[in-house]
Amino acid sequence: MEYALRMCNKNERFKEFCELEKRLGYRFQNISLLELALTHKSVAYEVDADLEYNERLEFLGDAVLGIIICAFLYKTFPEYTEGQLSKLKSVVVSQPILALCAKELDLGNYIAFGASQNTTNGRENEANLADALEAIIASIYLDSGLKFARRFVLKILEDKIRQLAQDEIKYDYKTALQEYWQSTAHQPPVYSLIAETGPEHEKIFEVEVILGDTPYGRGVGKNKKTAEQQSAKIALEKLQHQKPSF
Question: Which residues are catalytically annotated?
């Protein structure tokens, strides 16, 4: 059916759906799926008890989102261990990240709420926004399949994933290095204090990390923990660019 003929002019609600489709970058074959995704349970509780709302779609969308993100992370970050992948995935699909995506789509202005949510700032509530976004992912999946759902998910999340990979997953370099190294060499990294210089109140520590029998990086810091983190960071960077011999 042609886009212009799909009831867009019959009432304001369908005009809103057409506007949102442009934001989503996706046109629905079955526009009722989008309507369902944007119906909060408060409408059913307060207006029409028989009205279907988006919780079931949210349940499906959570699963669809999970498989899309897991597959993307697996292919995009081959150097990451299972633990690192799990950590990054949990951040990517977290409520704050999904709510941020929903805000960027201005999703709150399109959700149908009951009076209680309208009077309690429900349109800005992170849980409401994240749930609606997951419901929309499910609605696209039901409307056109996994390929189109994946295209939408990566459109809104890929840049954030790559940024999170830089900012979040390796903030704890020691943990990341231990997970990587033990998964390949079946032994933990060893940190050795090389030097301790400076006056008592301004000491500088230099630590070297050893993988197997090979030194992989030296880090410095105002305490041992910082120096160890820095040496682990250097080792991880080296491991990403070469295949170590065990």
Answer: 62, 134
